[in-house]
Every structure is written in C-alpha cells, then in structure tokens.
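G., the chain you wanted modeled:
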Amino acid sequence: MDQGTSTDSPSWREVVREAAHEAAIRETEARQEGREVLYNYRWEHVQSVARVAVRLAEILDADLEIVEAAAWLHDVAKGQGEDHGKEGAIRAEQILGQTDFPADKVAAVCHAIAKHVGLWVREPVETLEAAIVWDADKLTKLGATSVLHFAGYFVSAGPCTTAHLIERMKDTAWQERTLGSFHTAPAREAGKKRFELFREFIRAAEAEQEARDL
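Predicted structure as tokens:
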C-alpha cells in the first residue's frame, strides 16, 4: 500500500472529480448571476485538461497520479481570490488529505496547481508533472474542441450571433504567443497543429459568413 494511504479513506479519483465538478458549478453559477446555465465551460475545460494531461503523462512516463490529481483540481479555486493557483493548491491539499491519495505526492500536486496559472511564461515550469499540467491546460485552449468550448462560453453569457462569435474568436495573437510556452515536445507539436486548425476554421467561418468563398 502507498505511503499515507488508508483502506478506510475514499478513492481519490472519485473525490477529485466530484470536487472539480462542484467547483465548476459554483464558478459558473456565480458568473451567470442568476441566469440559467446552458453550458458549463469550466467543467468542459477541466475534463479536457484531465484527458490531455493523462495522455501526456503516459507518453512522457511521468507520475500519473500526480498529473491526474493536479489536472482535475487545477481550477478548483477558479473565481476565488486573486490567485486561483495558490488558492487551488491549498484546497487540493485539504481534499487529497481526506482520501487514499499517497501522502508523499500531495506536495507535488499542489506545486503543479500553483504553477499552472497564465497563458505564457518566460521561465521553464518545473517539475515534469507541473510542466505537463501547464501544457495540458494550454492545449485545451487551441484546436477544434476549443472552438466549441469558446462558442459555448459566449452563448452562455447571453444572446449573440454568428458574426459576434467569429469576431470574439478571430484575434488569435494570444494563442500564437501561448505556443512559445509549451514545455514538452508532444504538446509543442500538437499545439502547432491545433493552432493552425483553429485559425483556419475561424478564417473559413468568416469567409463563409461574408460569402467571400464564392
């Protein structure tokens, strides 16, 4: 049995998913300010980050438990305080301490959560597990899935049009800058592909909207 675990403690995987889901609901409902929640962007994002992070951990032979727990909990304090990374790390320590998660890995999870905030960095993110969580978080903001995520987010904010959605998404300068902040080779390669796909989709959508493709 892993150090710090207990057979009487609940399964950490179930607990972190539930904690992430509850946090996503709270944040979304607060942002909606009483409006009906038609699309929970935060929950969709967190699920995508977890899937990407686990895959990267498998490819790079990283510690899967650290990566998976951090990925699920990376936004658990979103909308709470000035630095949701630091607040999330504190919350993650509390959550994992009540489960069968290995006690000797909790600090590494908290470190990865604290380090994930932002869209670009100048200095490398250490450790490998923290770098993977960073990369997974950024990859979900690029590519085909991100078009759906962003569209859902904007629609949930209130009535909008196709032209409005295109206008909100066509400035991709921040995404291009994000490409320079990936830390792992698989994420860098996937990021380039996803960015080009996203940019080409928006260009095509704008051309069709204005009938310039004829």
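The radius of gyration is 18 Å.

Shout if anything looks off.
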